[in-house]
Amino acid sequence: MRILFSGRSMDSEPWVAALREALPDASVEAWSPGAAPADYAVVWMPPQQLFDEQRGLRAIFNAGAGVDALLSLALPEGVPIVRITDAGMAVQMAEFVAQAVIRHYRELDEYGRGISSGAWRTRPPRPRASFPVGIMGLGVLGARVAQTIGGFDFPVLGWSRTPRTVAGVACFSGPDGFHAFLARTRVVVCLLPLTPDTENILNRDTLSRLMPGGYVINVARGAHLVDEDLVALIDNGHLSGATLDVFRTEPLPADHPFWRCPAITITPHVSARTLHAESVAQIAGRILAFHRREPVGGVVDRARRY
Amino acid sequence: MRILFSGRSMDSEPWVAALREALPDASVEAWSPGAAPADYAVVWMPPQQLFDEQRGLRAIFNAGAGVDALLSLALPEGVPIVRITDAGMAVQMAEFVAQAVIRHYRELDEYGRGISSGAWRTRPPRPRASFPVGIMGLGVLGARVAQTIGGFDFPVLGWSRTPRTVAGVACFSGPDGFHAFLARTRVVVCLLPLTPDTENILNRDTLSRLMPGGYVINVARGAHLVDEDLVALIDNGHLSGATLDVFRTEPLPADHPFWRCPAITITPHVSARTLHAESVAQIAGRILAFHRREPVGGVVDRARRY
Asked: Residue B265's closest chain A neighbor by CA?
């Protein structure tokens, strides 16, 4: 079998080398225009030209969990798209969200600022029951995050497109359950896939429905959040702040209002990194399974777009 | 029964009121010199005079987990001392330590500094297996911390005076196991009681035995750590930094070298706060149980000093 790799911001060499090692019977090459026809493509934000040329692909493997960028291209119809599921990302997401929740709840930034100005003052402990954490998206990542946050005894809620059951999590679903979920949530964590249904889902209307003092953690995609609505609701005091790891434009432009808002903690899209070894192992295993016509995890439903 | 309360840095009024409410058949008062004889004392860092005067105490209840300050006084012999166990402290300790471990492992302070200077640079993910976390002290708090850290897939080790078994934790014990524990630990978390055996236990010799790049999290007592040895090992590069919540003198004096070390994160003794409602409920329940001659948890072994 013949495999092509194309990874926009990723260094091709180690990916190609690792795929060759994992699939010694396959021919693996970095894609370039005019490449010979291949059976499989392993891609991250590939150029449209790859799909215009490669008309014989049997499956497309996305080297990441989110397929929003890939699905924005014109892809060959009927060809399965397989995305990364977990491969070391769930634990990273759990730890990133946990530290963001703890940092906010325990007022650690306030302590840090106080300490650096010489103040040695303790603040009264805040009741944990007043900080329900609501997770939007209950896939592999969302379920792990929900479980982790529950381990710290916070009330945990979850919201998903279709009904889900996660132990210890008050689950809501669909448009009908969304307002009830928001009204009971103080710290909202966005882990949704980006689809036409979820774009701009965190906006003035929905963020206003969070409990007073609400806090936003976005680790999904920048386009889930209406930037100016977040800033307005922090400015008017309804929201207390946000931890944002993803943005509509990355790097975040120097003149973006987020930079001037001290209640917003910014990280450069690092909440869950694609881990090379784990991802290659998962993709190689799935290519082999697919080739043997065995069932494969992570197949994208093109209609729901994740 | 008659109960006296004395809490140095604590506001007496809410404690007395809450104890009265929880024990309606008891007489509860804030201690003052010359107070009438009482059956029980509920104390936090009380004055020696209380014990010099109150010769008829049947038990002493410490309104905190650590009894090092209480045991430094001349206490009536044979009178049981009961300390707080958990009462909402274990989860706080777990979240404080978790965020300190994550913040260090995920280089979040470095990201924060980079972001604030306009850099949008990602760092290569670091292998989790290279960050074994070693917990010193496997009591109620230590066991919960170990479990929490294990939930983030770090290798977890534990060390305690006497042998312990904690699921998923590589347990070491006693002086014989200490060097082996240190040699396999990169992030060390001190949760020991302060006793003559554990004073200065984190010193140049023991800290040098940690894996290169070692990191110190002290949430127990300042006197566990030899301050100048920590600074020297950070300066010579063997250790990468520390998160310190407790100090030999609190507030930390303005001229202390810790202030000039950017690799040390300082918090003002807030890792696990005594929670008023939970602590009163636990102490009141134990006073009643003790009064009925039922077994009571949290009784201090004066010989081992915790």
From this structure: A112
- Which helix (H) or strand (E) segment is A219 a member of? none
H or E element, residue B68: helix B68-71
Q: Identify which of B242, B174, B252 has the alpha carbon closest to the alpha carbon of residue B207.
A: B242
Is B170 buried (19+), middle (13-18) or exposed (0-12) by CB count in 10 A? Answer: middle
Which residue from A102, A105, A122 is facing B98, i.e. has the nearest CB? Answer: A102
**CA A249, A299, A142, A250: dihedral to nearest 10 degrees?**
-10
CB contact under 8 A, A95 and B103: no
CA distance B252 to chain A (A): 8
ipTM of the shown complex = 0.95
Query: Hey, are the CB atoms on A118 and B275 less than 8 Å from each other?
Result: no
Q: Is B222 helix (H, G, I), strand (E, B) or coil?
A: helix
Interchain CB distance below 8 Å, A115 and B268 = yes
CB burial string A112-140: b at 16+ within 10 A, e below: bebbeeeebeeeebeebeebbbbbbbbbb
Q: Which residues of B touch A261 (CB under 8 A)?
A: none
Q: Which residues numbered 56-95 in B keep a CB inside 8 Å of some CB on A?
A: 91-92, 94-95
Q: Which residue type sits at B294?
A: E
The residues of A annotated with a catalytic role in the active site are 221, 269
Q: A10-21 burial string, b = 16+ CB within 10 Å, else e?
A: beeeebbebbbe
Min Cα separation B271/chain A (Å): 9
Query: Rounded to two decimals, what is the model's pTM?
Result: 0.95
Q: Does B8 touch chain A (CB under 8 A)?
A: no
Burial, B223: exposed, middle or buried (Cβ in 10 Å; 0-12, 13-18, 19+)? middle
pLDDT in tens, chain B (306 residues): 999 999 987 889 999 999 999 999 999 999 999 999 999 999 999 999 999 999 999 999 999 999 999 999 999 999 999 999 999 999 999 999 999 999 999 999 999 988 888 889 999 999 999 999 999 999 999 999 999 999 999 999 999 999 999 999 999 999 999 999 999 999 999 999 999 999 999 999 999 999 999 999 999 999 999 999 999 999 999 999 999 999 999 999 999 999 999 999 999 999 999 999 999 999 999 999 999 999 999 999 999 999
Secondary structure element (H or E) that encloses residue B217, with its range: strand B214-218
Please list the alpha-helical segments (H only) found in chain A: 12-22, 48-53, 68-71, 89-105, 108-116, 140-150, 174-183, 204-208, 227-235, 276-291
